[in-house]
Design goal:
Largest sheet: 7 strands, mixed
Number of helices: 14
Order of helices and strands: EEHEHEHEHEHEEEHHHHHHHHEEEH
Oligomer: single chain
Strand order of the largest sheet: 1-2-9-6-5-3-4
Strand content: 15-25%
Distance between the termini: 50 Å
Length: about 350
């Protein structure tokens, strides 16, 4: 097991790599700790979760609602969870978002920790303290920033992960490489998804690098005034189409990255769009999709990054280097229509 601690401005998060659920008993004693998980994980790991009291939510993005949050809070009350309780989110990004949000508001805040069970959860969703809920098709319009006290990485949880969720997670790996790490991008080009699924050491090293990449960016800019904005590469359009077309997060972000790369060509002379597209296709991610550009622009105008009549759009200078470039709504409309 490898342990790292990331000290943010608001709190510190202990990261336990290559650990197991047995370690969880030390971090969150069963007497006053509660697991929040989804129906799929509960089906696979009911026995492993038995020492704790468990709250189960529906699986999938559609569970990220106020109704689900209300149900979780009511169950915590019914279970007599006190202010000294710990809420443990075990699952993908939907579960950790709900768990972090619930822990942040229940009795004005209780301790929380995460055990991500998907590639996406491990390298992205569980890190950084953002915990959001959707309002209809509007992604993460309600939320708070609150760092978990710990994140435990048990790679055995990936054994039951469906192939489509592996693909989804690698969209965020490619995003990290595209904006911050050209060596990682080259490593991904040298390998395949099957390589990472079959070689546990290769996968563990990739997850470790991605976690520290994101955690370091967040530590330097927790409140998203600078480099943390770069983590939104592909997300402005991605979030605008994800829920409307029932795309997975990875599929939507992949499409959003290709669009951002095309805009990067026109705005700042990016020359490697073909290389990005080839890598996305290699990892079985979509690079185009027929969406309603007017509807997409409508949702983009509600984006949290919109200030006045401009959106801070993340564009690529080269593979491994990104910038935030302000684009007007009219400019984005033109690019969407083209």
């Amino acid at each position: 097991m490898i342990q790292e601690t990331i000290a943010y401005t608001s709190a510190s998060t202990a990261l336990y790599f290559d650990a197991s659920l047995e370690k969880l008993k030390e971090l969150a004693p069963t007497a006053n700790s509660f697991i929040l998980t989804d129906e799929n994980l509960m089906m696979h790991y009911q026995q492993a979760f038995k020492p704790w009291q468990v709250i189960t939510v529906p699986a999938g993005e559609s569970a990220k609602t106020l109704d689900t949050l209300d149900d979780v809070i009511r169950q915590l009350i019914a279970l007599d969870a006190g202010r000294d309780a710990t809420l443990i989110g075990i699952g993908g990004g939907v579960v950790t978002d709900i768990a972090g949000f619930a822990a942040g508001i229940y009795k004005r805040g209780i301790r929380c920790g995460f055990v991500p069970s998907s590639v996406l959860g491990m390298i992205d969703a569980a890190i950084g303290g953002k915990n959001g809920l959707d309002i209809g098709e509007y992604k993460n319009m309600m939320g708070l920033v609150r760092q978990p006290e710990f994140i435990l990485y048990d790679y055995a949880l990936l054994d039951t992960l469906p192939e489509e969720e592996w693909i989804c997670g690698f969209a965020e790996v490619i995003k990290h490489a595209a904006i911050k790490d050209k060596e990682m991008f080259a490593l991904l080009e040298q390998h395949t998804l099957a390589d990472f699924r079959n070689d546990k050491a290769l996968l563990a090293d990739l997850i470790y690098k991605n976690v520290l990449l994101k955690a370091t960016v967040v530590r330097e800019d927790e409140w998203e005034n600078g480099d943390r904005k770069l983590l939104n590469f592909g997300h402005t359009l991605g979030h605008a189409i994800e829920n409307s077309y029932e795309l997975s997060h990875g599929q939507a972000i992949s499409i959003g990255m290709v669009f951002a790369a095309r805009v990067s060509e026109s705005c700042i002379g990016f020359k490697e769009t073909g290389r990005l597209i080839a890598l996305l296709e290699k990892y079985e991610l979509p690079v185009q999709f027929p969406f309603d550009s007017r509807q997409a622009l409508h949702y983009m105008m509600a984006d949290k990054k919109k200030i006045g009549e401009k959106i801070g759009y993340v564009l690529l200078e080269t593979i491994g280097s990104a910038v935030v470039h302000p684009l007007s709504i009219d400019e984005i409309r033109t690019y969407l229509n083209s």
